[in-house]
Amino acid sequence: MSCSGPRAAPGRTAARGLRGSYAGPDPGSLMALGLPKISPLLSGKETMPQTSVVFSTILRPSCSAQVQPGMGERGGGASSSGDLIFQDGRLISGSLEALMEHLVPTVDYYPDRTYIFTFLLSSRVLMPPHDLLARVGHICLEQRQQLEAGSDKVKAKLKSFSAKIVQLLKEWTEAFPYDFQDEKTMAELKAITHRVTQCDEESGTVKKAIGQMMQGLLLSLAARGQLQELREKLRLPAVDKGPVLKAKPPATQKDILGVCCDALVLAQQLTHIELERLSSIQPEDLMQIISHMDSRDKHRCRGDLTKTYSLEAYDNWFNCLSMLVATEVCRVVKKKHRTRMLEFFIDVARECFNIGNFNSMMAIISGMNLSPVARLKKTWSKVKTAKFDVLEHHMDPSSNFCNYRTALQGATQRSQTANSSREKIVIPVFNLFIKDIYFLHKIHTNHLPNGHINFKKFWEISRQIHEFMTWTHVECPFEKDKKIQSYLLTAPIYSEEALFIASFESEGPENHMEKDNWKTLRTTVLNRA
């Protein structure tokens, strides 16, 4: 069931700005909300950066993640000096073969963990994981054969080499366990571990490490399978066709205010839901977006449904929350109560901002900007909109959502120096985060003119994904209220048609276009009946 709703009214910009293209360079200034529930994100004196927070990092001459030049000097001279290019001590490009060799340990070398994560994450844009693992296994086998053919002193290093190979595989299975859902990848893993141990006379330690690694991997895959089964059982909120011409729900019917009338508590429960859904997103899910967009996307790691399900489910949550907000407002019969409902959601969005839950904040603003809600001029005239205007200002699409990015930067800084678990929460606007990854991919090529992989690009993408994953692992500090969450997740949501009917019945059409739309809508509904 798709929860995407009607378009925003022309008078409002927040929802339209999120779903549309990036706006032009019309800078705004940040306004503080001044809510001391927890330490504020930013003060009103903060200056607005002239360059997008996200893109400024890639425009610098060097990338943020570091690999020391000495780390490229692998034992045995496995790669020539021209195969890996460093700039100011940072790896910025290299041939695919050299980058793969840089991943594989030797007797005297082990790759930096940041490099391991970045290369394993980005390599899936270039080849499927099972192909990479097969090539890694081949390099390992070649090195092992060289050691076996050497002197007794060299052979004595076999155990140390085997332990490093197992450690690399362990880091792979822990960082990207779902690569091994693919039978080909799992088969390659078993083949490599078999070769690592088959010739060792004293391989008890190595075998034990392999056993522990495989046990951890199987537990991760089992948890993934259980999560998918649970998702299939959980149904999305039902689409309520809503009122059929002068048949609004009775005043006694439960609404959100009947379940929770405390804006802070509702914002906390929304944050619970956000973090639960974020926790199911994996780094490779985000990187798969690039794989789908890449012109050479003929290599597919898994089925499309498996690769994108978590992302689609999370995006659907945003749309459903927006539609729930619109439903709660439009189905209220009395104008006084609609006014109260709007002011309540404004307060909830405000509390979400202070918590650092920007995604729920944007979803709520988007819901109030949908045409059936935004056109209720008589209702809006009774609403104290000063707080709503501040919220919309933070989501102003001007200058590539510069105001929002400044607030996000403030939340990130607060998280990094947090004294409490509440201050660690950062939930970005997911659609904008995905757009940033998309543009990073589009404005920088995968390959340089000399044929090298543009690793500087992948450093930056990996950095942003790693930061995002850090946010997803934050444990929610708020007490869970099952009653409130059940309502948020299962309350019926009006269809787009039902929202317009409820809106027109609350406040009749005011111009020729609205009158024509209302007439067409009534005719459609009556004919269907």
From TrEMBL:
Residues 87-218 form the N-terminal Ras-GEF domain. One of its GO terms (molecular function) is guanyl-nucleotide exchange factor activity. PROSITE patterns: RASGEF_CAT, RASGEF_NTER. Residues 262-509 form the Ras-GEF domain. Residues 1-20 have a biased composition (Low complexity). Residues 1-21 are annotated as: Disordered. GO terms for biological process: Ras protein signal transduction. It holds the Pfam family RasGEF_N. Keywords: Guanine-nucleotide releasing factor. InterPro entries: Ras-like_GEF (IPR008937), Ras-like_Gua-exchang_fac_N (IPR000651), Ras_GEF_dom_sf (IPR023578), RASGEF_cat_dom (IPR001895), RASGEF_cat_dom_sf (IPR036964). GO terms for cellular component: plasma membrane. This is Ras-GEF domain-containing family member 1A isoform X1. It comes from Hipposideros armiger (Great Himalayan leaf-nosed bat).
